[in-house]
Amino acid sequence: MQVVAKRRSSTAARLITITAVLGIMACGSDSTSPNAIDKPLLGSTTKLTSTQVWTLLKAALDSAQSTANGGFGLNMWGTIVNADGIVVAVAYTGTGENDQWPGSRVISAQKANTAWDFSLPGLALSTANLYSATQPGGSLYGLSTSNPVNTDAAYGGETSQYGTTSDYMVGKRIGGINTFGGGFALYDSTGALIGGVGVSGDASCADHNIGWKVRAILQADFVPAGVDPVVTVSGHTDDNIVYDITYNAGDPEGVSASGWGHPECGSAMTSIGLALPTTYPIEYVGGGGEQRIQRARKVK
Hints:
Layout (H helix, E strand, L loop, with lengths): L1 H13 L3 H4 L28 H16 L11 E6 L4 E6 L11 H14 L33 H5 L27 E5 L5 E8 L3 H14 L27 E4 L2 E6 L10 H13 L10 H9 L2
Antiparallel strand pairs: 1-2, 1-4, 3-4, 5-6
Helix pairs in contact: 1-8, 3-6, 6-7
């Protein structure tokens, strides 16, 4: 797995770091644009345009989608929201907007918003973690309807501009809740919660695998802790997908042992997902990037 470590290191170098990536103030180079971002995502002194952020999201999404994820290998949508829930960038893989499921554009934004909305500086919840709790009888049942999508932001503008730097969602608060795989909170190297990223376009389990990799490539995975009951080799928990739902006769919904479980979508997706903390290790505050590389090199 030394190759994995080298690939991630070189890719990250090309993409700069997420701290620089998301220190964005405005859409394009015009700070008076109606799509201007009011606050930098990180509170950073580095201020990039949304065009620069879009370029980095696009590259990360292309890279993650091209790896083995166990799904159908479909093209993807990806969205980043900042620490105010404002959409910063929307991108897709493929050569045009019709190469992906059209409905996945808004779903990717919902996922980004959900992960940001329900994560904290000390606890990350991926959208995959919310599946069981939001089913009938679950502790968070009803959450899915609690924060409606801003339909004007979601569906306004020219469809020909969707997924470009001029996507109508950019600069707007999207809202929306989604409770299956593909959404992740973003954390910088100080452990600050700085926004969310969501991807959509394949099976929900493959979405999770792709989204985890996108966050890792962007180096926004300084995850403080999560609800995944599996403790990593460094003694941490994270927000990886949990596959612990059992199905009994007369119980089609199934029961998650942890309360944070997600249905399996296929054996390949399951094995790839469970291995993510090893193949694409999360970073830790103060780790300086070395922990990620060292842990990846230990994988045989």
